[in-house]
Amino acid sequence: MPLVPPPGKLTVDVGCGEGRVTRDLQELGHRVVGVDRSLTMARAAGEQSHAVVADATALPFATGSADCVVAFMSLHDIDPMRETVREIARVLAPGGHLVLAIVHPINTAGGFVEGDEVDRPYVIEKPYYEHRQEVFVIDKDGLTMTFHNAHRPLQEYTEALTDAGFAITRLREPTNPDPTTAWNRMPLFLNMVARR
After folding, report:
1. Which of 13, 57, 93, 110 is the most buried (most CB within 10 A)?
2. Collapsing DSSP states into helix, strand and coil, what is residue 32?
């Protein structure tokens, strides 16, 4: 949230899911519309805010109608990522901002070897520059979760932004602040602000 510019005429939350970020933006004074391709998610978001069902490559907004687009933990899961970035650029007015948060590409590139040691090695076994889809399953507290993950190198995002006419103005790499975990040594997420 500290990277989001002050409220303007319209903020669009692309891939809004159940609307958590949409509601947070509203509390900050933004006039915000959430967008999700899933009817179930858009309905959940729409219970407390305004949300619509739409594909991220065909946003239901006029050209130049928004001054801010937020893509929180969604862009890395959108297969036509480049097309989505172009569509976001279309709906943003000149000078508008895209604020995005994704899983850091170094996070999806590899993993720590088994163990509990904080200093255990982080290993990248597959080519970092290879775009790939992966599925992995995690069992936690009796709950099995299946994740579909896309790994893209960082330059795929930066090139998509540049090609769509964006200039990156901020970049942050948050991690786990707990010094007793190995993830304290590696970035978990990548947050960027790009100006059109």
Report:
1. 13
2. strand
